[in-house]
Specification:
The chain is an alpha+beta fold. It has helices spanning about 30-40, 75-85, 120-135, 180-205, 220-235, 240-250, 290-295, 330-345; strands at about 5-10, 15-20, 20-25, 45-50, 55-60, 75, 90-95, 100-105, 110, 115-120, 140-145, 170, 235, 255, 260-270, 275-280, 300-305, 310-315, 320, 350-355, 360, 380-390, 405-415, 430-440.
Amino acid sequence: MSTDYAVVALPGHAAELVLGLRWHTILGSELTVRARKKAREHRATHYAHGGERAEAVGVLRFPRGDRPARGMTRHCAALAFAQGHARGLHACCVELPDGRAWLVAAHQGKVLTQTDRVYATPADAHSALQALKDRHGAALTVHGQVPASPAEPFDLTLLGAQLSAANALRSVGWAVPKPVVVALAACLLTAGGRAGWDLARSWRSGPDAAPAPASRVSPESAWREAMARLAAQTRVHTDDGVSAVLAAIVGLPMDIGGWQLRGAQCQPQAFAGWQCGAHYQRQRRSATNATFLASRPSGWTESWHPLDGVTASFVLSDGAEPLAIDRLQPLSAHDAGTFSQLQSVLPAFASIAIGEPAPLRIEPPVDGFGVPMPALPGLPSVHERSLSFDGPLRSLALVPASLSGQVAWRLLDARLHEAAEPALNRSRWMASLQGTLYALR
């Protein structure tokens, strides 16, 4: 298996991005099981898989001795990029610190199997990108630093907001041959029989030798505690918080010392506010890094690209609060009310997409013996569904206020399209707002 990969540390995160996995299609049921099996077939040490519905798995074999530093976790950059671009067809081409270049493409949140490649030179990556553009045409949105080609500015640090267990690399582990399994099972049965005999002898020797019974756990209180923990970990956004972020993006300076604003992205991080990056491109010959630093707002930190672009990072309050299950609206109320409001403003957007509702997974509590408890009837049934808006930046002000406290927003992406002809659902400033809507069934 090829080891042509790259590991890039993320400043401010106890994590590293891994670029250059090999992706394979998997079909059928139990895709999480098939993903690990496919990784073993390719003699991989690690793999990345997007969940039970993901029909592709990325595999990689780390050479002996290549391990993350203590306290660091490794995440699949391609999967993080795909999860951050769940709508449409996107490609990302960026130069790496060691002089190589990385190209990845994703469609509807899934990594294209022929991408996630690390190329020896940027020219090689750009040639592969051009082949993608020739194949997909205007349907492909390009991100990154791509000379002589229109692209949405992108920096690998933006993937920091997408890091989660869903895109962490997983160890394949040991594949134990069946004869060894049988032998181990026989040993365990023998040891278990001896332990049972000793237990029986101690029981006959008197009641004082009997083990203490496990403490009884109330199923109702255990389930309510589990739901309370989930609600505390799930943060939804208020209408005021989203409005403040929109106002901050609209208020970004269009020109800073001869550098022109090309786009901006904001992604909320748990208990850390919206992490935003404003992308500027050098426009005037007199513009320098120094002229940008002299004029830009205070509190920004810059990442240079290095002579013709800069990403300015800053933090905004996210206006987020823990999910309040008792204040969630039922699915039927959204069908009759919220979605009727969306239908009335739909002409102002290029698209509004609403996913199918699915039960929100709650880790079941366990009883005193460590056995998961069955779900109790009568407990609230929380469902989640994806929600995304694409259209002019100004149209995001029309997002219904009834979604306040009901949605966990995960991405606001604004892009400048200088050649766009203004229309009701089109402008020079286009934006995408993506999140998860929570509701009761």
